[in-house]
Every structure is written in C-alpha cells, then in structure tokens.
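Protein entry
_____________
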Amino acid sequence: MTAHKKIHLRHELKYPIDFMQYQLLRKKLSLVLKPDPHTGPDGCYHIRSLYFDDFKNSAFFDKQAGVARRKKYRIRIYNYSDKLIKFECKAKYNQYVNKECAKLSREEADKIVAGDVSFLANSENSLLREFYLECRHKLLRPVVIVDYLREAYIHPVGNVRITFDMGLHTNLGPISLFEHNTSTIRVDEHQFIILEVKFDDVLPLHIRGLFPTNIRPQAALGKFSACRESTNALTGCSITRF
C-alpha cells in the first residue's frame, strides 16, 4: 500500500459453525439486525470472486503461514451478473483488515481476466494503477474462482456486518467469470457454514451477547486458500513456491 492512502481498518473474525448453530444464530440476529439490502427473496445472494496470485504464489503461501501483513487482489460479482463488478484489494494488518474497491465495466473485467492490463497503466484510480504495476513486476495472473451463497445482516453501531457463507465451490477447468453454468466442485473441507463477524472499533455488547460461548474463531479459515488446495488436489498439481 502506498503511504498516501487512507486505510480503514476493521476487525474480521471467522467461525466454522454447523447447521444447527446457524439456525439458532440467524433467528437471534434477525431480531436485532437488519438484512443486507442486496439480499434476494430467498434471503441470500450469490458471490463469485476471481482471485489473482503472482508467479511465487505469494498470496497463497502468506495465508498458509499466517504472515501478519499480506494482501490479495480479486474481481467480485454478484448473482452471476455484470451489472456490478468490483475490483478489490483485501489487505491484512495483524488482526485487522482493510479493503479497497474500484468498479469495473464488463469490457474491463474481460480484458483483465484475459491478461490484458495495459489499459490500467493510466487509470485515474490508484488501486487499478497499483494492480497494473504489480502485474508487470510480479506477473500476477488469475488462479482460482471462489463461489458461495451469503446471508448477511447489518447494524449501524460499530458498522457491524455479520454474514453466513455456505455452499463453497471452486472452478474445475478453465476460468469463466460470468458463466452461470461453469463447471465447479464442492470444497469438501467446508461442508460447514462460515460465520464472519466484521466491525470497526468495538462490537456492541447487545450483539456480542447473542453468540454462544462454545463458538471459537478459527484464524486459518480462508475460502481462497481452501479453494486453491481443492483445485490443485483434483488436478494433481502442487502449488509451488519459487
């Protein structure tokens, strides 16, 4: 990250929970928090993220090693639509996270996925220019798709966002970002539901009290690394660190 950028640090805690814990928690949360305004009629929305890594697979190995300061780039879409396409950089600073975001057009997203990033060199957006430079210096390329359904709740105090992510899948074969029927596989390691609790400074006590004491965070829980491991296991390829 460049020094002039304003960094908005947030807490992000992740918990693996079973279906019964999910059912109990969602009932409690729905009484106190509001559903995310983007939620569909079935209470969820679909997220697809395409992650990038460099020729050293630094994003993967930094995550596996629990490196205190790390980052990864991704393109994210919702419900298989190209109406809203986000380019994001998610950075980890010890126990905090910061996320930068820029919007892309369908044409821009298609170019990036195809490996054409030259048009970003003179972008007015600093995040996209930064990505261009890293592509040139570190040979970033798309490596894995992460698919799942999300149920989300929000609360204004503390900028709280609580999500349940379920049905984690990853791509099998060529990367196709916008294709609804692209070939994906279930990631067996995550048959459970992933609970994420995000907030700015302090999680309000009346929300904190909704969580049972037997739920514990799992620091190494990551959809990106789990999907990369699953994809490479099926293809018989190993992820190499040069």
Observations:
- The chain has six helices and ten strands.
- The mean pLDDT is 89.
- Strands lie at 10-17, 34-35, 45-53, 69-78, 81-93, 96-104, 141-155, 160-171, 184-186, 193-199.
